[in-house]
Amino acid sequence: MEISVRSYQELCFPGPHELYFKNLSKRKNQVMEKNGNNRKLRVCVATCNRADYSKLAPIMCGIKTEPEFFELDVVVLGSHLIDDYGNTYRMIEQDDFDINTRLHTIVRGEDEAAMVESVGLALVKLPDVLNRLKPDIMIVHGDRFDALALATSAALMNIRILHIEGGEVSGTIDDSIRHAITKLAHYHVCCTRSAEQHLISMCEDHDRILLAGCPSYDKLLCAKNKDYMSIIRMWLGDDVKPKDYIVALQHPVTTDIKHSIKMFELTLDALISFNKRTLVLFPNIDAGSKEMVRVMRKKGIEHHPNFRAVKHVPFEQFIQLVAHAGCVIGNSSCGVREVGAFGTPVINLGTRQIGRETGENVLHVRDADTQDKILQALHLQFGKQYPCSKIYGDGNAVPRILKFLKSIDLQEPLQKKFCFPPVKDNISQDIDHILETLSALAVDLGGTNLRVAIVSMKGEIVKKYTQFNPKTYEERINLILQMCVEAAAEAVKLNCRILGVGISTGGRVNPREGVVLHSTKLIQEWNSVDLRTPLSDTLHLPVWVDNDGNCAAMAERKFGQGKGLENFVTFITGTGIGGGIIHQHELIHGSSFCAAELGHLVVSLDGPDCSCGSHGCIEAYASGMALQKEAKKLHDEDLLLVEGMSVPKDEAVSALHLIQAAKLGNVKAQSILRTAGTALGLGVVNILHTVNPSLVILSGVLASHYIHTVKDVIRQQALSSVQNVDVVVSDLVDPALLGAASMVLDYTTRRIY
């Protein structure tokens, strides 16, 4: 059965899930081969009450329709088997499911002690059942105390657990139970993106989490157009019209029973005063429910002409009742979850669902001392129609869950793996540790110079070493090793603890492998070079490598004007033009590690040739090489020098001479600098229109000479919506070195890189 699973995933969490589902069918086939072609997955579904059955029934139907893949065992326990709660096991039989086992696990009393005793009784009875059924996997739903007993038994008996609706937040003891089941479960099916993120934050393996939506939505979203008038008449009377009645469903809050009973009493008073036909469902079996039933009887609800009090309504009929109600009131999760699918107004009372995600149809009454506040809420909500909400599903949860089940590899180890975030190393209280300065070795491979520095955690350059960058690979790698060994030895004398080595280099870099893939023409013999291995082997330290433009951006993120900003772009102006893009606090590398090659943005179709082989690039106009080329042209034509300026015969003409001439009034030099600044400005405009950063930082020796022209170009060429983006000159002296150091220093604070 192939059913599209794209829409909900793209809506809720685009990216990784889309790829996940593309590969899921392939994984399924591989797993079936591993498990044996004739081996069916034996699935045990255990249901404890009417609420969890509404979520589990669609999954059970899906499993039943694929007998070639699954064997289904149904275990019924909890309030399903109690007459006072409707003997709801009968609806399971009416749905044509064979119940393999019935377990009477509820200890009556409806107080805290009875709940604990019920968990204990279930734990006593479940091992025999599980030994007999021997399921491959048990499906457990939600956050009820019965479900905790199920999960505990299965986990201790080495049975894999699939938990439905983990990661959600409500606001009572249910949260603790739900998260406890999450820790016991091996696989997770969640309904919302937030729930998925909560599971990941709880250190659950992302590969074992499925964002599917709520299974009950598979029925909800195709139910509203069915015949409903006969259902309304059956439960509320022949004289009741759609949108002219109320459905009330309120449960005790086990962490504050007295207050929840008082709230229920006020709710009934408000409903009596509101004088609309109301269907009241009895509360669940939690501690406090007996007292709530006494309140109902004290107020004569069961005999009041405006009220219909019932223990249970079949789910398919319940859907129709809430879909066409004038309002739903209470503290049941169905009010904030399922009812939103129809846009029916909801009044959510108290704290039981305080953490749930809700649609705009929900009005919260957190607390009430009198019935007035609830009565006001009824007047505000009754009879409205809100937009339908799909926060909890799109109607395709079951096909996704079945695919997920088929992908489970029974040959994988049963032991769960938790994805804990890295934590700081424990450092013993030693005087040397207290006094030493945590530092990084930073290496900057430029077109001219090779620099190594000891950089402290605060971004202070403790000591710096500079040598000319050799022309050959052998000489260069030997010099890097020599300078790093000397710097590491010096660090000991300076009481600096070196945590690792960060390398900034020109060219295209694979930072994951620490390899320079392809260098610029400025650094010869520097393609396919593994920098990480020789340095790590020599210094016995971790090594990071990245492009110099990216390093400049990381320096700004940690030490400069980009600190704390979510999105910004750095342009580095020097011998060449480079840059880095920070998006959502993270550096963008691109699919082939070629992102942010900002110097090779084309700003003119017929511009000068660039070192990359193209023409019209920013680098062909605004780099130090381009300015030096223009300076030589002027000098050869005797148009460079002005009064107060000279170039010694043994000194090569450079970009600095062009800048000096412009400052002294050389009109041609000024024109060249203005053209260069305009080219850079056009590149900045392109970036503003592409990634819309909140800040652009110009870094490097030429930045201060370009800043005013760049701002002028933005005012003239950029869309009005981005003209207010700040463009500033970096105040960092050595961005490449500081960026290289930041890769190491971020690791020590366990920032993901």
Describe the structure.
- InterPro entries: ATPase_NBD (IPR043129), ROK (IPR000600), UDP-GlcNAc_Epase (IPR020004), UDP_GlcNAc_Epimerase_2_dom (IPR003331).
- This is UDP-N-acetylglucosamine 2-epimerase domain-containing protein.
- It comes from Pipistrellus nathusii.
- Pfam families: Epimerase_2 (PF02350), ROK (PF00480).
- Residues 68-406 form the UDP-N-acetylglucosamine 2-epimerase domain.
- With 753 residues, this protein is an alpha/beta fold.
- Helix content is 40%, strand content 18%.
- The chain is built from 26 helices and 26 strands.
- The strands form 5 sheets. A 7-stranded parallel sheet has the order 3-2-1-4-5-6-7, with helices on both faces. A 6-stranded parallel sheet has the order 10-9-8-11-12-13, with helices on one face. A 5-stranded mixed sheet has the order 16-15-14-17-21, with helices on both faces.
- Strand 1, helix 3 (50-64) and strand 2 form a beta-alpha-beta unit.
- Helix 6 runs parallel beside helix 7 (173-184), helix 20 crosses helix 26 and helix 22 crosses helix 23.
- The model is unreliable at 1-22 (pLDDT under 50).
